[in-house]
Design brief:
Elements: H1 3-6, E1 10-13, E2 17-20, E3 33-43, E4 46-55, E5 58-60, E6 72-78, E7 88-95, E8 100-105, E9 109-111, E10 119-127, E11 132-135, E12 140-142, E13 147-156, E14 161-170, E15 183-192, E16 195-205, H2 208-212, E17 222-229, H3 235-250, E18 255-261, E19 265-272, H4 275-292
Parallel strand pairs: 3-7, 6-8, 7-10, 8-11, 9-12, 10-13, 11-14, 12-14, 13-15
Antiparallel strand pairs: 1-2, 3-4, 5-6, 14-17, 15-16, 17-19, 18-19
Helix pairs in contact: 3-4
Length: about 300
């Protein structure tokens, strides 16, 4: 191993030794091929996780019910500590009729610098009629030089509701790092009966120009998006959501906006310098939407989901 490789950070593979960030020590160390399959069904008045399959480094904690039996809270884990170039992660989430689940992650997802290979995460979500999914992962931290692609596709049956957010920090700001090399892509597609309801493709090439451009990050390393589809929203509600987002954005010298989507939906965007502030701003909108769903605002989650 070269001296340069020795200077790269290390992470622990479960029972397999050490893996070098972005560089494999030998042919024995292959990229991860992780898989997580979850299937929820309703039993009486309770949503239950009836089937789960996990392949390292992905796994899931035991579901819990801090709000009663209706909403099943589930925490997903990445046991290897982060994502490196060449990793392929696949998740399939299936919610049966009239189920309700809140999915989050145990910690921020670290996406390490790549030696050239692209890391990819593919997520497929199926929501049956009457199902409600709150998809609220912790933030992703994209290291300078990372190359990452996420594809999230939701099949939304009539009468189902999807609420999801994505919070990303570009560069390890506490170290003075900026995302000036690498590549980040995020694709979200929401379909219903073969018809696209929402297509959102984001691409941020790492470069000083995009980091500082007013049409990109504008020097703000944190961005967030929240999307809701499933129930009609009034213009008055959109104004309430905008006011809640604006109040928390201005407190942190950030910017945010809310707009209705075509059909029964809402989109929020956020740009700032703090992941905590981004989570608090999007949580304010999330809590309003919970009232719309006739779900009480989560008292344990005043600043976003807090996994056990």
């Amino acid at each position: 191993m070269s001296a340069a490789a020795n200077r790269l950070p290390l992470r622990l593979m479960s029972g397999c030794g050490l893996l070098i960030e972005g560089t494999r020590r030998s042919a024995a160390f292959q990229p991860w091929r992780g898989q997580l399959d979850l299937r929820y069904q309703r039993q009486g008045d309770q949503t239950q996780l009836r089937h789960q399959y996990a392949r390292a480094p992905l796994k899931v904690q035991r579901p819990f019910y801090p709000e009663g039996p209706t909403v099943c809270h589930t925490v997903m884990l990445h046991t290897a500590g982060g994502i490196v170039g060449g990793d392929r992660l696949q998740q399939t989430i299936d919610l049966g009729r009239d189920t309700a689940a809140l999915l989050t992650t145990a910690a921020a997802t670290k996406i390490y610098r790549s030696n050239g290979a692209i890391a990819q995460q593919n997520i497929t979500i199926q929501l049956a009629p009457g199902a409600v999914l709150e998809w609220l992962p912790q933030e992703a931290i994209v290291f300078n030089g990372a190359r990452f692609e996420q594809n999230l596709r939701v099949e939304l049956a009539p009468g189902a509701t999807f609420l999801g957010w994505e919070i990303v920090r570009f560069g390890r700001s506490a170290r003075g790092e900026q995302f000036v090399s690498g590549d980040w892509r995020s694709r979200l597609e929401i379909w219903q009966d073969g018809r696209p309801l929402w297509l959102d493709r984001q691409w941020l090439p790492g470069a000083p120009e995009t980091f500082h451009s007013p049409n990109a990050l504008a020097g703000c390393p944190v961005v967030g998006s929240l999307v809701w589809l499933g129930l009609p929203l009034t213009a008055e509600f959109i104004e309430q959501a905008q006011a809640a987002l604006t109040e928390r954005s201005h407190c942190h010298h950030a910017a945010g906006g809310v707009t209705p989507t075509l059909g029964d939906g809402l989109l929020c965007r956020y740009r700032g310098t703090s992941t905590t502030a981004a989570r608090q701003a999007l949580t304010a909108v999330w809590q309003l939407l919970r009232v719309k769903l006739a779900i009480a605002p989560c008292q344990r989650c005043a600043s976003g989901p807090e996994p056990l």
